[in-house]
Amino acid sequence: MKLKIIGSNSKGNSYLLENDNEALLIECGVKLPVIKKAINYNLSKILGCIVTHEHQDHCVSIKEVMKAGVDVYASKGTLDILNCSGHRANVISSKTPFSVGGFKVLPFDAKHDAAEPLGFLINHIETGNVLFITDSYYCPYIFDNLNNIIVEANFSEKIIDSKMEKGSIAPFLRDRILKSHMSLETCKKLLKSNDLSKVNNIVLIHLSDGNSDETQFVKEVKELTCKNVYAANAGMTIDFDKRPF
Ligand SMILES: [Zn+2]
Ligand SMILES: [Zn+2]
């Protein structure tokens, strides 16, 4: 199984878990032609698209994706706000597992300024357990037997604090960021509180343009975990099989 990064920032998020036979789209926050290109124009290979929440950088093409014949899965709060209905719109809820082809998905509630945001624990025989969490300033859960992790590291508290001192960030904006997105510091706490012994890859996603430092983030998480650590960039493909332990 490969993880393809189609987009990963506030301009658009979309990720593809893909093997020779099937694919799961995570988020559709980029235009449909960009998704089509990423799957080599074989859209029928995408068995479903799971969406975390209603912000456009995560779901801008949700209606086009459904029109193209792909089932989407999101919370009731998300689908209602986006005015999405019909047989392609599947309501999912926190702590209720469902399957999309060979992918088993367990949604859980995320902490974000959205109607009913979710994170996902995805299981596939090839990848093992994949944690996907974005747009969540905090995660109260511990996950068992993780094999791969895709986690937001949006900003650094240090960068935000130094911007505050210089007056180059407004207090309301600082508060909004702190109460909606995951900092590198929180990301590291989350990683530390989980058993990483079977983890192969850690992919840092949704890095903010102005408030992050990709090289430093990767370095710090590598030092903390001794794993394969990546900062997600569009066009990147990562081997996402679980390690043969
Ligand atoms: Zn976002
Ligand atoms: Zn958001």
Mind explaining what this structure looks like?
This protein is α/β, with parallel strands linked by helices and 245 residues long. The protein has a single domain (2-239), classed as Metallo-beta-lactamase, Chain A. It has 8 helices and 14 strands. Strands 6-5-4-3-2-1-14 form a 7-stranded mixed beta sheet. α7 packs parallel to α8. Bound molecules: zinc ion (2 copies).
Largest sheet: 7 strands, mixed
CATH topology: Metallo-beta-lactamase, Chain A
Rg measurement, Å? 17 Å
Provide the CATH architecture.
4-Layer Sandwich
State the domain count. 1
Name the quaternary structure: single chain
Overall structural class, as computed from helix and strand content, comes to alpha/beta
Proportion in helices: 25-40%
Keywords, separated by commas or semicolons:
alpha/beta; 7-stranded mixed sheet; 14 strands; 245 residues; binds zinc ion; Metallo-beta-lactamase, Chain A
How would you briefly describe this protein structure?
This protein has 245 residues and is α/β, with parallel strands linked by helices. It contains eight helices and 14 strands. A seven-stranded mixed sheet has the order 6-5-4-3-2-1-14. Strands 7-8-9-10-11-12-13 form a seven-stranded mixed sheet, with helices on one face.
